[in-house]
Specification:
CATH class: Mainly Alpha
Helix content: 40-55%
Order of helices and strands: HHHHHHEEEEHEH
Number of helices: 8
Strand order of the largest sheet: 4-3-5
Distance between the termini: 39 Å
Bound molecules: zinc ion
Shape: globular
Radius of gyration: 17 Å
Number of strands: 5
Length: 171
């Protein structure tokens, strides 16, 4: 499929997406499923591969369309179910503001904060974690007497590449 090579030719500095090599993601999924005694079905595998190979975070409908072929229609609801499963394994995250999905190559610790940097120009999504945010958010939550199950922050703006390109265009 050649999708794994896109980081070389088309480097937007979105290191997270580029690190999620489909082959590596699939073998991680297989290991996790084996450890939990759950089945890594063909559809779950295909959905994971498609998310990992996507240049931009796909939505469930994009994925259903991409995985459907003549004689075999994949329903969005089946894709959603596979995505739920993959999210539970920590292999995929959902970008709530876009209702789109990104592969995750990190192995997050429990309760670790995830910060998504979403570029409104190129649509790229960078994933990062921030100890500073974690500390101050932790204090805020403690003050509010609130126990978080998980927390994901989404920040929309312009990535470094797009900002530089625009600056160059204006000069
Ligand atoms: Zn992640
Ligand atoms: Zn960008």
């Amino acid at each position: 499929m050649g999708a794994a090579t896109h980081s070389r030719t088309h480097d937007h500095g979105h290191s997270h997406a580029c690190r999620a090599d489909p082959g590596t993601m699939v073998s991680r999924a297989e290991t996790l499923c084996r450890a939990r005694g759950v089945q890594f079905t063909a559809l779950r595998r295909e959905v994971l591969e498609a998310v990992a190979a996507s240049e931009r975070p796909p939505g469930a409908y994009d994925l259903a369309e991409r995985l459907s072929r003549p004689g075999r229609r994949v329903a969005p609801v089946s894709v959603y179910r596979a995505l739920d499963f993959l999210m539970e394994l920590g292999l995929v995250h959902r970008i709530a503001s876009r209702n789109a999905f990104v592969p995750c190559a990190h192995e997050h610790g429990a309760g670790e904060n995830v910060v998504f940097l979403i570029c409104r120009t190129c649509g790229g999504v960078d994933e990062t974690t921030s100890p500073e945010v974690e500390t101050s958010l932790g204090q805020t939550l403690a003050r509010a007497g609130f126990t978080p199950a998980h927390s994901i922050l989404e920040v929309e703006g312009d990535c470094g590449t797009c900002r530089r390109e625009r600056a160059a265009g204006e000069a």
